[in-house]
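Subject: sequence -> structure tokens, single chain

Hey, anyone have a minute? Need the predicted structure for the following. Not urgent.
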Amino acid sequence: MVDTNDIQDLCLYLDAVYDGQEGKLHFAIGGQPYQTEEGRYSHRKWVPGFFHWPDDSTEIAGEMVKAAKVGDLFLCPYLMTGESRAKGRSLARALVHAEIDTEIDTDCVLSLNGFAVASGTTGHAHIYIYVPLTESVPVHQHEQLCRVLGERFGAKDFKVADNDVLRPPGSLNHKATVMNGGGGEPTQVRWLVRP
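Reply:
Had a minute. Here:
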């Protein structure tokens, strides 16, 4: 059974990151998760795909939420020009993003007119921060702005590319099912600061 709140959360996210654009919405489903010998989280199955956005947006969100029940759903927050999720091939870069592994100051996100998504498992504050720009910027400036945003919130590892994939709200993080002995329940990916 698909929760309509999950679909609403995902639709809000899609509207916020794509902001009236049309193009290819790229996603991937990570299935059969496992813990590597090095202690990292990975997937034995990785299924990429794309939809044309905004065609059938509610139906797309419903299908994605269903898929997220059985695997990790990742979305690229930038629409692409083609069927390949290649770096530098986004239609526009009028949004910057950062991946933060510590608690954040949500007032600071609000002061930047940004929004944030909490995607971590219990005890791990894995947060994505997004800040809209007034206009699209070239690839090199986009990467610099993403890096600066990450530094502002204490990021140690940087996702700065316009082809990154991140977990959206309305989906599930399945790490707890396999990490550190496994057996845990998937964690809800949720809004921390709504747009």
